[in-house]
Structures are given as C-alpha cells and as structure tokens.
Amino acid sequence: GIVQGSADRITEGNRDSAGVGGAMLGRLGAFLQQAVEGHEPTIDLLASFIEHWKGITQYYIETTDEKITARHTDIPWRLKQMLDILVYEEKQHQPKGETGPCLEYLLQHKILETLCTLGRAEYPPGMRQQVLLFFSRVLAQMQHPLLHYLNVHRPVQKLIRLGGVTLASSTEKEELQFLTSVCTKIKQDPSLLSHILEGKNLLAAAKNSSPAVFVEEEAGNSVGEHLLSTQSPSESTKQSQAQTSPDLSNVPPPGVHSCESSSSPAKPENNLISFLMQLCCSEKSRIALKARENLLLLVSVAQDTESARLIESNALSCLLTDHLCEFYRAIPASMPPMEISMLQPVSWRSSRDPGNSSVAALEEFLLWMDYCGELVREAHTVVSKAIAKAIVDGFFHKVLLAQLLQMSEFGILNATAILSVLVRQISAPALLEQLVFFILGTERQPEAATDLHHRHPLRDLLIEHCNHLSDEVSLYFYGTGGAEHSMSVPRQEACWLAREE
Hints:
Helix content: 55-70%
Order of helices and strands: HHHHHHHHHHHHHHHHHHHHHHHH
Number of strands: 0
Shape: elongated
Radius of gyration: 33 Å
Distance between the termini: 126 Å
Structural class: mainly alpha
Number of helices: 24
Strand content: under 5%
C-alpha cells in the first residue's frame, strides 16, 4: 500500500510538472511568435512620459538643498527620457502625419512654458543650461513642424529674450546650439521668421484682440511659478527679489549700444538678431564664427520685402555699425601707419593673429567690415541698402571723418592708412557705392576750378595732403601712394556707376 501510494504521488507530480512546463513552453512560444511577426510588447509611452515629467516637478516639491546643481540631480536624465519618447513616438506616427499623445500632452500642459520659467529662475543652479539643451534637441531631432504652435514658439521667444545679456556667459555653447536649431528650422520654413522675430509685438496684438490669449499665457507661467514657490524660504526670497527688480529685458547687453542717429529705429528688446549679434563677438572663435554663419543664414532667407523690413526693424544695421565702431576704437592709436598700410584684405571666416595684439585688433576690425560686406551681398535690397547707409553715416562720417580732419600729423597718417586699407577691403557693390560718395562726393558733372559750391571737402583734403606743410605727411602720400590708394579703386567704381546711369 505504501509503495502504491508513492507511485501515485510520483505520477501526479509528473503530471503537474508536465503542466507547468507546458504552460511555460506555451508562453515562450507566444513570445517567439510575436517576435517573428514583428510585434513588440506594448509600451505605454504616455504613462512613461508623464511619469518622467512628474518626477521633475516632484523634485521642486521635495528638495530643500539649494546647493545641488542640476547636473547632479535626475533632471537631465528625465529630460533625456522625455526627448527619446517624443522622438520614438514620432517615428510611429510620422507615416500617418499625426500628432502623438505624448506631444499632445507636452503642448496642452505647456511643458515648454514651465521649463522656460524654471530656466529663467536658474534653480537648481545650471537649470538654464539643461533647458537650452532640451529645447535644442527637441527642435533638432523632431521632424514635426513645432514652431508653428503657439505653445512652442512663445517659450522659444522667451528663452531668446533671456539670452545675450552677459558677455562670456558660461552657457554660450548651449545658447549657440539652441539658436542654431532655431535658425535651421527657419531655413527649412522661412515663414517662421515672422513668428520668431515679432516677439512681444505679436503677443500684444493677440492680447488686444483676444483676452483669452493673455489668460492662456498666464496659465502657462503659473505652473513654473507654483513649483518655484515650493522652494525653501531663502530661495523664495531670491525669486521674489528677482521679480520685483527692474526688468532688464529692454536693457541692451554689454557692448551693444543703440545707434546715435535720431533717424535710426528704436532698438527693441533682446531678440534673435541681437542675441546672435552678441555671440558674434564672443572671445571663443568657433562660437563667434558659427553665430555669424547663423546670422548670415537669417539674412539670406529673408528675400521678400516683408521679411526684409522685419529684419531691418530689429535694428540689424544699427547693431552692425555699433560693433564696427567699437572694433575701430580698439585699434591702438600708436600703431604705425606703414604697418597699417601693409595689411592685406582679410576674410571674415579667418582667425585673428594672437601673436601681435595691435595687428589682431586691426584684423578684427577688418574681419567685421568684411562680414558686413558679406551681409550686404546676401541680403535683400532693403536690408543691404540700410546696412550700407548705416555704416557710412555711423562710422565713416561720425568717426573716421573726424580722424581725417584732425590737426595731428600722426593722426592724419593713421586715419588715411585705415581708409586706404578699407578701400582695398570693401567689395560689396552697395557698400562700395557709399564709400565712393564718402570720398568723392555725389556730383557727376565736370567741376570748374572756380566752382566752390560743389567741391567735396574730403577729396580736396586728400589731394592737398600730397603738398602738406609737413614733410612726413607729404612723403607718406608720395612714397606709399596714400592718395592713390584712397581714390583709385573708388574712381573705377565711380566710372562704373556713371555708366550704369
């Protein structure tokens, strides 16, 4: 009986084992069948996306240590996961041209608006850098046209207005990466230029026409402000002080001044053009070069009259001229005229000579002049004429002419040498035309010796310097051809202009 009972139990155990093994084999077979058919296990992307976003917001609720930087939290990792989910979701929906649920969630819950607010607060320290990177990667990696959405281009505008305030910013690299992604999208769709450049003017018009837009904007900011309000008391005090401090968005960044000419348009708040202009003067040559390429891209894209006027209304020509004057004033006054005259034309893409500070300052000035010429060549006629006129009025007439008319012999030689180098450097037709008028005047009719009314003072002065009271000045003009260099190329251009008429 005992033996028979043991045998029965063994038999039942074998049946149970066979049942478990069969179930496992069945599940394994089903999984392999799914793999063969190309069906991946279902992943709830939206739930995962929301989980990562709530993990970021939960940090502001629970964390009290103000010294921890953003890089040492899980915020960068969670932002990266959110980006990966958006990109993966888009690949699944792109053939249908649909907007996935995760992207819909990002737009409806104004996540970019909230991130912009957190980046502006710079809490935790380094958060602005993380926000810039997230914006850059979203714009660069997603193929869906995002900037047409109000809840995308509005926080992009706000993030642009936050930049370019300080020289040599620690986030220059991330700022440039962000602006490059914006400019690339504008190149792909030039109609986006108006969305990005109009800034608060566009929003103000929308608020006046529809109060609901204002309510929507305030709702977008309230989430980020609510998260910041959960910080420790000391941090909350810092934020309240920042909110009650004067608004610096309308203050020009260091090194950027408004044009002195009363006829120039009023300088608007910080925008895409002024932000790029600030990075164009970065001490890091690679950042400066890339920023100039992006600005050139924007100008070349705006080829219709409306876009061109929008570019010019953002004080492009004024900012270019201001920087040109700054570069000129940085040239040492003690630099020998002969050394200036020997310098050959340079390209705006070339780098400065770090070995000689005097030559480097002069080269930087000529690089910027060459860059202005490149902008004039590539821009719409409206913009190119405005840039050329601003440079002639703001630099040649207001700065260089005073140097040419001074009494100091060394100053005369120095200024004339600069003019000679500029004659060889400038080649853009619209800018060269203005240079011709500056040196030779605008009169086209033959001039009589007794006709004092139509005589051009600068031209006569350059000729008289060949017979100057100072032997040093006269020898310079005879020995180096100062008057010839200052007038030969413009004369050829003047003849060409005359033939065109």
